[in-house]
Amino acid sequence: MFSPDQARVLNRLAIGAGPAAPAASTAAMRRARVRGAGLEFQEYRHYEPGDDPRSIDWTVEARLRQLVVRVAQSDGHIRLHVLVDASASMGIGVPDKWSCARSLAAVLCYVAQERRDTAGVAIFDEDVRAYAPPAAGRPQLFRAFGLLDDASPSGVSNIDRALTRYGAAARGPGLAVVVSDFFSPALSLDGLRYLRHRGLSPAIVQVVAREELEPEFDGDVELRDIEDPAGAALIVDERAVAAYKARLAEHEARLVGFCREQAMPFARITSDATFAAKLAALQAAGLISAYG
Amino acid sequence: MGFANPAALWLLALALVVLLARRRRPTRRVAVAALHLWDAPSAHDTSPLARRFRTHWLLLLQAAVIVAVVLAIARPLWTFRGGSAALVLDTSMSMSARAGGITRLDTARQRAEAWIDALPAGMRVRLITASPAPRVIGEFVAADAGLRRALAGLRATDAGADVGAAVDYARAADPRPERVLVVTDAAAPAGERRAEWIRVGQPAENVALTVLSAKRTSTGAGDVDVLAELHNHGRTQVTTTLTLTQEGATVSRQPVVIAPHGRARVVAVLHDITGVVTAHVETDDAIAADNTRRTVIASAPVTRVALSGGSYFVERALRSRPGVVFAAPPLAGAAATADVLVCSGCSEVPRDGSSTGVLLILPKPAATTEPAAAAPITQSSEPHPVTRSLELAGIAATIIPGAFPSVFPGANPGGNPGTQAPAGATIVASAGGAPAILAYESAGRRVVELRVDLERSALPLTPAFPILIANAIDWLASRERRPTDYTAGDPIVRPVPPATADTAARAITVTGPRQETLATVTDGHLVTVTSSAAAGTYRLRAGALDDSFVVNPATGGESDVSATSSTTAEATAGSTTGSSPSSTTISTSGGTNSGGPAESTPRRDRRVDMAAAVLAVALALLAAEWRLRAPRSGARHAGAGGRA
Question: Chain A interface, mutation test: which of B24, B35, B56, most A Cβ atoms within 10 Å?
Fold first, then answer.
């Protein structure tokens, strides 16, 4: 999946901890946002019945005659859910968007595995087509890679429905990275809201093809929806490109605005982006970061 | 429906330009993920069939615009038709008479075209020629150039014409023609009111070869007497030369002087000559076709006779007949070996199928049978080739009782067996009330049936018997069915060997004077040539048979072209409505008709130039095409008129 050089780069990365809530049940190498059984002091607070007596700071009690307990920052793992859109529209572009999405999903899984986080992969189009629940370890990584290799772009896309179905089966905390082109005609983004409702922290990685950003027409071109080949065709010429770009910008603005409003990480990557450009985009969105 | 400018229809090929341009630059097809970002899809375009249809209809609209414009340029003319007419044109030999450098047929053609020009353009005209028999050349619209071409293609025949029959034929058409025009050089019959009659032709000087016959002399030295008769239909004496040729070689050449309106006969004696002899008179007269005549000098006639059963008296009688050659009796299914089969002691006509005729001598009665008494022969008063120069009265003959050919079962049922005769048979002679000699045809073969007991009758001992046998042999050999000279237009019916006629008609070929193969109709052992309008040498081939005969011009009534007045021809015109005939003067040099019903007939058709209407349609189509082709915000659904 990766060359040795790429693997060396990935080995120095970790899944960004920003919005994600690590599981507090197991010890890990990262600092979690929640308080827990970590070694690093976070704060004092007044003792309450039920607190572990071992956490009482007797020095403070001796000085102030008050029972206070030491609260430490918890260390934990991130549960990473990578949801990859494998609908037919992902087959567009040179190279196609599916190749790029698969590469991004593999990067995230690999980095998570290297940092002992749990990672799972779901392939969806209008529904969840294949699913590997988050787990740790190298076998899980190979399962995720196998799932990505076996999938190919086909079917009709329905992101909201697929995310809703996935959220019904999985719950947080965890980081849910949705990799798609987000070109579904009736996209309401309710699926992302439902993931958040289920305790997951959604993040959006939009993959677009260069041809979709800068279409070049010479004369009349007959456009057909790749996910509806029997549907009505559309004849356009170069004069229609400007209107298309305007609508595309409007669509992007809506998507970005939603992410900003929901404090969701957002990254847009073109399908012809280099490996380094992909990592840079993920890093800029806070999905990965340098480790150590 | 016609076009004022039909040449413009070639521009219809421009419609292909649209298709070719479309083919040269096909629309690129691109699959996209976000079609909704280009335009909002419409639900009614989801039907693949409707989409396929609509994908191409803008292209069809463009082609329709081009077609409509081209049609407008071609100026379509819609004609409301009016009635039908018939044009009967005389194409007999006399119509080939030339005077002033133009033939009567040319003049007739001009008159006919003038008549057609005056007809309503939508009227249908049936063109009929009258020589030798009425024949429909075709039916055309008066404005059709094909009618003029058909007229120009007409040629005069070497035969006569029955114009009256042609008029009857023309009027018998369904629907009945409103007008019938006859253009001929013959005068209209008195009281002719069925047709408009135009008579053409100037009187002309003409010499015709009216007779050419050849006959072998009785000297036996192979000499042939050839008689030629020439007729001068002119007013001046003609001095000319008669040339006899055979296969291109001149065999006789004699000067001839023919008095005005007189005849001259020339006799030439030729030696050792056989085949077609052509006589030609060298003169520059009105009709060239009747200056040549042909005849066939046949070799000495030979009749092949096959004897079956043997009869002393018959054999002796046959040996006394010159030209009789004995042949072997035919085998069943074998090819023709004899012209006549003499079957002695046969109770039925042999089915060998090879002989033309059969002389059937019935078998003698059994020895135990009481012989009938001899009775005097009564000869039929009805003339028959078998009884030619025959006198049988008073000769006694004994009839063979009760034996009749089985080929006529049931004939004359219930009657006295001794008086039975086949249906259709001719009783040439009878004795004691019973048929003694019968002649009839059976399955296309001639049969002479001899019911006389030759051994108990005096008939074989009389001089009449060899004459009877000779006549019977000649009739059975069908010699009279093989004339060598025909007149153009006469039906040609010739016998062929039965085996050939029965097996395959395709084996029979008749070639005409120009070596063209002519259509034939075969009925049994007779073949009929359907076309004999051209004079010349014809050849019939049927198996081993190779028969040549000649067709000569119909000089009787056709060669005399001096009947009309010196400078003009009288024409009688009438109408089908019963108007009084009017007289008009027609000049063969193209003079005008002083008046006739054709020109006075009002036009009943109406021509409408549809160019403006078609152009309006073209503009409407163009507007629709422009409206559909104009981009709306740069994008459109193919189903809504987009080009594909």
Answer: B35
